Amino acid sequence: MQFFCYHRDRPGSAALREKLAEEHWSYMDRYAAELIARGPTLDGDTATGSVHIVDLPDPAAARAFAFDEPNHQAGVYRDVLLRRWRNMLGRTMWDFPGGREGSNRYLVLGLGTGQAADLVPPTDRRDDLIAYGPLLSDDGAIWLGTAALVRAPDPGTARTFLTSALYAGIEVHEWEFGGRR
Predict the structure, then answer these.
(1) Which pTM does this prediction carry?
(2) In Å, what is the CA distance from 24 to each residue of 38, 86, 118?
(3) What secondary structure letter does DSSP report for 123?
(4) Residues above pLDDT 70, as percent of the chain
(5) CA 172 to chain centre
(6) What percent of the chain has pLDDT over 90?
(7) What pLDDT digit, counting tens, does each position of 168-181 carry?
(8) For residues 158 and 70, what is the distance between their CA atoms, to the nearest angstrom?
(9) If residue 170 lies in a helix (H) or strand (E), which one and from where to where?
(10) 3-state secondary structure string, the chain?
(11) Which pLDDT score, from 0 to 100, does residue 181 have?
(12) Residue 17: φ, ψ to 5°
């Protein structure tokens, strides 16, 4: 089962995040084979959150992954969005043909309002999709939204990867490939 996990930083926690960087990376190293995508959301050079898309056996394992994470345990994060997810591209971020560097990258997060939307990735923009899939209930039966990691020239263009009228709201966050530096 695949899960989308978005830890949002607590304001003023940048120094603590930096102090715990090695612990965070070491924790994520334990899940290297299960990770589909990872990386921080940003406001300029300041981290605002951390995205992890991971393949785990069940919702209990996903909750353990999200809540045992060192930054979460130490109070870096203010909240966690954890949802079942379906990998509609069938690849990891490391398989993205655009590579790790160059151009702007974004997390586009659409929170659903009812009828499932954007279940199929836009085929005319596939070359700019890093990760894409629906957010689902724990049992996978109820659509709750869509999450995508995209390459786009600006946040407005990134937002157009989802059909905005079909969501309660769409968030766009600067994002970059994560991992050890």
Answers:
(1) 0.95
(2) 12, 25, 33
(3) G
(4) 99
(5) 11
(6) 86
(7) 999 999 999 998 76
(8) 31
(9) strand 167-175
(10) CEEEEEEEECCCCHHHHHHCHHHHHHHHHCCCCCEEEEEEEEECCEEEEEEEEEECCCHHHHHHHHHHCHHHHHCCEEEEEEEEECCCCCCCHHHCCCCCCCCCEEEEEEEECCCCCCCCCCHHHHHHEEEEEEEECCCCCCEEEEEEEEECCCHHHHHCCCCHHHEEEEEEEEECCCCCC
(11) 64
(12) -60, -45
**Phi, psi (rounded to 5 degrees) for 155:** -60, -35
8 Å CB contact between 112 and 167? yes
Token pair recorded at residue 111: 């929170």
Instruction: pLDDT band for 6, please (50, 70, 90 cuts).
Output: very high
Contact 123, 158 (CB under 8 A): no
Residue length of the chain: 181
- CA 33 – CA 141 distance, rounded (Å): 26
Angle, vertex CA 62, rays to CA 60 and CA 68, nearest 5: 95
Taking only the tens place, the pLDDT of each residue in 87-133 is 999 999 999 988 777 789 999 999 997 889 999 998 888 899 999 99
Sign of the torsion formed by the C-alpha atoms of 145, 108, 87 and 177: negative
